[in-house]
Every structure is written in structure tokens, then in C-alpha cells.
Amino acid sequence: MFKRFILLAVLSAIFTLPIMAQIQFSANPSRLQLYPRGIDDSATIVISGIVTAPQYTDIVFTSSKNGVLIDSVIAPLSFQNSQASFLKNYRIRAEKALNNYRVYLLQGASSLQVLRADSVVCGDVFLITGQSNATANATVSGTDAQYVWIRSFGNPTLTVATAQADTTWGIAQGNTGSTAYSIGVWGIRLAKMLCDTFNVPVCVINGARPGTNIAEHLSAADPANLSTLYGRLYYRATKAKVDQAVKAIFWYQGENDGATTVAPQYPASFATLRSSWLNNYPSIQKIFVVQTRMGCIDGAPEHRQVREAHRSFATVYPNVRVMSTMGISGFDGCHFNVSGYQTLARFLYRQVSRDIYSASSTITANPPNIINALFTNSDNTELSVIFDQPVIWPAIFNGFNLKDYFYLNTPVTILSGSTSGDTVKLQLSATSNSYKITYLPNQYYNGTTTNYDGPWLYNQDNVGALSFYSFPINSGLSISANSLSVCASGSVTLSANKTGQSFQWYLNGSIIGGATSNQYITSTPGQYYVTMKDANNITVTSNTLTITQGGSATTPQIISNTGSFAFCPGGSIVLSSNVGAASFLWSTGHTTASVNIFSGGTYTLTIFDATGCSATSSPVTVVQYNPAPPTINAEKLLFCAGDSVLLTPSY
After folding, report:
1. pTM to 2 decimals?
2. What is the rounded distance in angstroms from the CA atom of residue 264 to the CA atom of residue 94?
3. Most exposed of 115, 196, 284, 433 (fewest Cβ within 10 Å)?
4. Residue 465: φ, ψ to 5°
């Protein structure tokens, strides 16, 4: 049984024999260690092992919290074959509290301290990886100072031996470059914001490396292979015992993948990388991808393809969130200054707060992302680009107008641009069938070798819209018909909703000679569509409508229930059709097979067969009799008793 007591004089005498000769730990906390919290916001500290020196009679465990002794326990050692096992568990909460642990061996009145682990905490774990903007080094003032509640583990060195040997915990630092416990400028700012908002310590391990491409970050067959970037990060996470508790990974990389032969492979490489992350870090809730800014490698022809891949990940993968760097100030053409990185941290903080900590947030925590592009007037001179949230059109910046940094795949000039809610409206110089649109240049201002640095589209919280590349445009061309079946001796009118271009109608895939307007009248069933060609010979095709052959409805005759079309005052007659039909429509508006008539007038009936074809009766006139009242005539108006008067009617 454990016995609790306060160790004072007993622990004052310390043996000088080598500690490892006396005890072997199988589990124990380390100085500055962060234990990942579980679903109950706590973690278990396990201290276990064997004592290998039989001269000791007891083992002592002490714990303190924020400098106050919490627990002091002595347990007798029971040796078998010169070994005595021990086990002690502590439960700590995820809070801003420093927990200290000591273990002593007792021999008589003397003691030997065999474990000292100070400033142990419980909290959350995040990983950062990518290239130089992920390392986010800065050696200038303004970077956040070290904060005791932000921890890291190991060294991001390229030297395998150093990486393998450096398995210590430390207080994270943001501005010391790729050295032990460095997590970068935006990494430390983000961690500090999370710590202070949610009152929980944070571990960040940064495995990024400047100047690397995505292929260098892929896992080897052995994910812990220390000769790889992936392996060194995974090794640090496993040695820190946090690999099963990583809440999120931040990926900021792509500047080195702008080569023509490399950029198209970026989405597939990311898919492989993401799969490895989910396999090796199974607790991941979200992956946060930062869309790179144009720059870093002069003249790389396909930065825009990499940025487009970044943008697409948010829709391809449900657990991926994307953040834009467009519009963040302090960019030098490759990296950001301290203020720029801290702005990025603030933007990421809102996403992380919402997605990891369930904090309330509006859609503006995400950068605006394009969801549709289509022509919205009849002659295709107005192009609407629709985002997933309202956007703001910027003023002219240093003489540059944002309209010039939207690119169509045809040589049509964009005259002006504006925003209305979630929609950017671009006015074109001519009717157009452009089918792709790009927002922002690959790298430089038009006609220069100067890195693009604005103007930008923003949302109301100054988060820049994600750039996009070759996004498909909906031409908006469609056709409709006044009926989808053609009746015997009838016709159907087909109409296109566009004007101002060259049209050509097709029936069953073949050209209809002479059918070159935006409307076509036909009496032939079949499949119809129309093509529309602009001045640049770009042709778009409408939807297809199938016109079926209708029937030939028999012309009805109206009959009455009396055999006559006249009735007396106060009466009525019932009119009906002499033939059956799928549906009926009387000139009275009734849609029943028969109708009760209470007043005179002219009536018609239209019947419809099952195909929708119709026929209308000849009109019939219904008469309601209305005779004049008779007049009574008398031969005299006075007569004597016993006499009489003759009364006669007149009509």
C-alpha cells in the first residue's frame, strides 16, 4: 500500500551513484513535456519502471502544481530477482498550469533523486510543414517572444544524426530560424492566440524546409525514414508521443513547383501526401492549406496552376481548408515581414477557432472563392463571376486597374468591372463566347517583370479572394420550345435566349439548311440544338430538346342533355363533348368533361389527347327564353249585380 507523508529531511541527503544503475523507467514525464489532452480535457501522466538496486527500501513520488505541493507518496519496494517494479499515475487537466514531478529512492535516512520533470502541461498538438514561408523565419524585432504555454520538440535539422539525437522538449521560439523548437513567426503568433483564447497550452512542431518542392515532402516506404523531410517530422512527433493526437496540419508550399513539367502533377502529389498524413496522424481533424503568392522564382511559368490546385483542395477534400495570402501587406516578392506573417496568423486563427474549437464564426473567416462564371445578358457582353460570399471591388492601385487582371481565353477587352454582393460584373468590348477565365497574373504586372502586388478583391474582413486559373465559363446559351410535341398539321417554335451572334440549328445531329437565326419553327419531331459562334470563331452549343410526335385529336361537337340549346327562365342545360379526351377546356374556364350552363351565350370546347395535341369545337349559341308578361283587357271596368265582365289577355 502507498503511504502519504511530507518528505522533508528524508529527501535532503542525495546519493551520488549513477542514477541509471539504480532505476530503469518504462514511462515518465520529461521537462517541459506537453501531454495531448483526451476527450475529457485531461491526460494521464504515467511513471513506471523497475528499481535494480536492492539496497533501497522505498520509492517516493511527489507532484506540485504552479509551485504548490499537491501529492507526496511513499511506497515500499518489493524485490524479486534483484528487481522491484513501480507504477504511479497522475491526471492533469488541459489548462495553464505547470506541473512538476519528482521521484526518489530511499535507503535508510538518505534519498536519491532519480526523476525531475518540471513545467509539464496538457494541451493540443499541431504540425506545420512546407517550404520557407512555412518556416517563416525572421530575426528582426516584432516577433512574439517565447511563451511558456507554447511547446515544441526536437530540431528540424537536415543532419540525420542530430535529428535522431535531439529528442527533447522546449519552449517554442518564432524567430531563430531552423533551429531546435523553432515554429516560425506566424506559427508562434497563431499558437499564442489559441492559448490565450481557449486557455490551453499548445504544442507546434514545424518540419518545413526552405526551397523544397512537394516531392521532397512525400513519405518514403518507411514513414520514419530520417533521410526524408517527412520522416524527420514524423520521427519528432512519435518521439514526442503526440503522433496519435495531432489536431491539424498546416501546409504552406508551392513556390518551388511552378515549372511547366511539375505543376500539373501537384494535385496528385498532394493527394499522396494527404493520404500519408491521415494514415500516420489518424486524429487529424483538418488540413489547412495556404495558397501561395505569386513570386519567389522569377519567371516560373505555372505558379498559377499550383495556386489553382491549392484553391481546388477546399472543394475536393472535405477536411481541407484553404487560406489566401492575396492582399496581405509586407510581401517582398517571396516572403512576408513580421507584420505580414502575423496577419496570416490572424486569418488562420479564425478558421482554426471555428473548425477545431467550434467557436462561432461567419463565412468571412474563409477567403472568397469562385463558384460560378457565366454570361448574364442576351448578347454575351456582360460576364458575371460569382463568389461564395460578398466581395469588394478595389480602387485603382498605383495606376493599376483590377479589370486588367482578369484574363479571358479570347482576345476580348474587359472595359470595366464592379461588384454587387457576391458577384463581379465584367463589361466586355464585344460579344464573346470565352469559356475560361483567370483571376490574377502568373507572377508579374502585365508587360513588366515586376511582381504583382495589387489591387485585390477582398471580403468585408479584408481577406483576399483566392486566385483562380482557367475556371470554366457558362455561355448561358439555352433553347426552349412552346411545346415539346408537334401535333398533326401543327408546328413547334424553338427559341434561343441569345442574340448578336451567328446561329446554326441542328436536327438529330445534322445541320438544318437555312436555319441560322435564333428562332426556328418546325413540324418534324426529333432532337434539336443550336450552336452560336462569336467573332473569334468560338462556338458554343446549347442544350438539346427532344420534340416528340403528338397525336391528332378529333374535333369535338358540343351536345346538350336536352337535345336543344335553349332553356326556360330559372332552368339550365348541360353541355358536353361527343368524343372522349385526355383533358377538356371550356370557354368558361371549366376543365370538366361537361359543364352546367345557367345563362345564354356562345360556348366552345377544346379537347386534348394524351400527347397534348388539341382540337376545338365549333361555337354553339345557347338561348335562355325570356317571354314578355301578358296584359289583361276588360270590356268594362264597372258592372251591376248579376251582370259579368269578359276579360281577355293580350301578348
Report:
1. 0.85
2. 44
3. 196
4. -65, 145
